[in-house]
Protein 1
Amino acid sequence: MPTTPDSVAGATHGRVPRPAEIGRTNVCGMSHGFETLAIHAGQDPEARTGAVIPPIYQTSTYAQDAVGAPRQGYEYSRSGNPTRDALQECLAALEGGPVGLTFASGLAAEDTLLRTVCKPGDHVVIPDDAYGGTYRLFAKVAERWGLEYTPAKVSDVDAVRAAIRPNTKIVWVETPTNPLLGIADIAALAAVAHEAGALLAVDNTFASPYLQQPIAHGADVVVHSTTKYVGGHSDVVGGALIAADRALGEELRYHQNAMGAVNGPFDAWLTLRGIKTLGVRMDRHCDNAERIAAYLEGHAKVAQVIYPGLPSHPGHEVAAKQMRRFGGMISFRAAGGEEQAVEVCNRTKLFVLAESLGGVESLIEHPGRMTHASAAGSPLEVPADLVRLSVGIETVDDLLADLEQALG
Ligand SMILES: *Cc1c(COP(=O)(O)O)cnc(C)c1O
């Protein structure tokens, strides 16, 4: 474990009640398999009625039995809500950490992590091809509050080590990265971060906990946009943090309540419903992506296919070491340059032209003009001929036919 940053270790405050600790029988210990945890962890049948599915507790406040005696610790839904608790417990179980916390969006989760661990004058190392919104959070918001950052190539351990400064509090990593699908060696970077007294945060959005569990490889905190694979149905925005260490987890829980960017009960419920099928969905995403990557690799109008499952990918070996399979995201560079890349995006019929990823339906986008437009002119600018696919779980032959007509 790294030295805990002062802002974490030094803070003293009243402990936010942990309703989830009370009144739950642990039917699902960590000895259960992933799919079992996805369906049952945090989701015991409801005590009063036996409802099999955690109800949507659409309430802002809770009646108290006496002054200072809230029932099971619930007093106000920003601080605690049973539907959110069910989701939080489930995510903690899936990532293998003691504390899971959910938020209104992935960026809200990131902001909470940053402002829990860092103070003005601190420094963070970020991926040089970070998710566009993450980069914007650092460059346009956190920097104004005095937080310094250095983009580094996270697939290069030496480059990350060189970017670390005495005031570095977090080494922030995405793996696979977005949209270039670079692979970071989580175990190696954990060692580098811990040597410097920094935390390793891993944005696990692209892999999902089914394919990769960063805490098992030494990460201190896992970040998710649950909007993507975790929710999986493109119907809800949300974010999550899972801490490897209870003390850090409780600091984050304090800030979750103090900063207030929580998700509502219905959003938590939808996300939890999505999680139940995460394992089977991810396997089909991977099956389809493997077929499509192989098809694109042989296509004359495609200059380069970027998919960690291909032996040609520079991060293939590291990915094979830390991931169960290689995911549903594929990027490729159009042989005909930017014009052709844009044309392919405009011509697909089944692949919907849209931002976001990780849903059951296939999506296509042009990162340079869409998700990563905010990185234009920065060190994080992406190639103009790049196309990104989020391969869904439709019939793969239909997806192949759609790409064939769009490339043709
Ligand atoms: C979408 C995304 C985010 C931001 O999450 P929101 O839910 O959109 O706020 C962060 N990281 C990655 C890798 C993402 O894809």
Protein 2
Amino acid sequence: MTASPLWHPYAQMHTQPPALKVIGGKGAHFTLDNGESLLDATCSWWCMIHGYSHPRLVAAIKSQADSLCHVMLGGLTHEPADRLANALVRITPTGLNHVFFSDSGSVGMEVAMKMAVQYQVQKGHPEKHRLLSLMRAYHGDTSGCMAVCDPEEGMHSLFSGYLPRHHFAPAPTAPFDAPRSAVEDDIQALRRVLEAHHHEIAALLMEPLLQAAGGLNMTSPHYVRAARELCDEFDVLLIFDEVATGFGRTGKLFAAEHAGVTPDIMVLSKGLTGGYLGHAATLATDRVYDVFLSDDPARAFMHGPTFMGNPLACRVALESLAVFEEERYLEKITMLNEILRQELLEDPDLHAHPDVEDVRVLGAAAVIEVYDSTSLKGAQAFARQHGVWLRPFGRWLYTMPAYITTPDEMRRITGVMKEWFRIETH
Ligand SMILES: *Cc1c(COP(=O)(O)O)cnc(C)c1O
């Protein structure tokens, strides 16, 4: 067999077994070329929130393809982009009134960071050109994003000599349901970094409530609220990266809603199109947008990805939102959350297992964290034998299922996750 020229992500091509070949999918399952059907516990890096082959999403793409597949947004506009921008303003926290499209989560974050730095320059603060991020953060794989990912665990330490230097505050440690007093240490740690460095910080970036790729690290809405207050106190913009948390993952449409907070800039991607096409949106408040208004063309926001506002992506995003609202997805997410809590959080045997350090659940996301990553070696192959696609990373065995996952399917996923610890021998 000749090796495929296809270079896979995060893969040691020398040692990794050949990738499984997917030929189709329906609902929460995808199908391999050998006829095997796998229940996807990860909904393809958390984006396929409606599952595979959703008839309404597929139809939306087909009908849009018949009229307009692509046109640039430079000097031109079209109905899908206008409608999606309006829809996003309607559903996101009050005050985010302006929408800049791009083609992926990483680029959406690049747009947010560039916007924040230019905002500060045009406000007369060119010295505020660094960013403040959190340890355990993940904001994407492009250079600008790598520089605000966790510098040690974020897969990017190799590039530290190449990347710009930013500031980092400790990752919050208080859990989602912690009382305010238990979050005080996390908040004070953030305050200390701002006190020391605010004069050179343009913006604080965070994945509100759920640091997803950082190991599904969860925090309290009190922390998010305090971050808003601290940013106002120190004249620093607040950027929410809701690429993973947006569109229901934490149990509300956006994680920001748990805290009742409007960030200055917010980034959406992954679930935006229901995963059917790559796209992202960077939203900004009037406060940010107005600083770019001037008679001077040089004060405009100088950015413009070729595929921003792609009509197919906008059209399928509109359909995704319509399905989300009409089919009451937030109720489906509540149902999935109840099962995840019952089956994982409230399982005493799982907590008592010597390899298990912690079990966390928030919305339609759950993780079993182990002390040592070697205890998850073989878990993926084990799950496959049971018809489930799990893709643990580091010390984290997790599920972030499609919202159309049925109760039985959800229990099959949690069953396999628990069964791994029952059969496992060390
Ligand atoms: C996936 C992700 C990104 C990057 O999105 P891409 O579309 O892969 O570039 C950024 N931030 C968060 C929180 C993510 O989960």
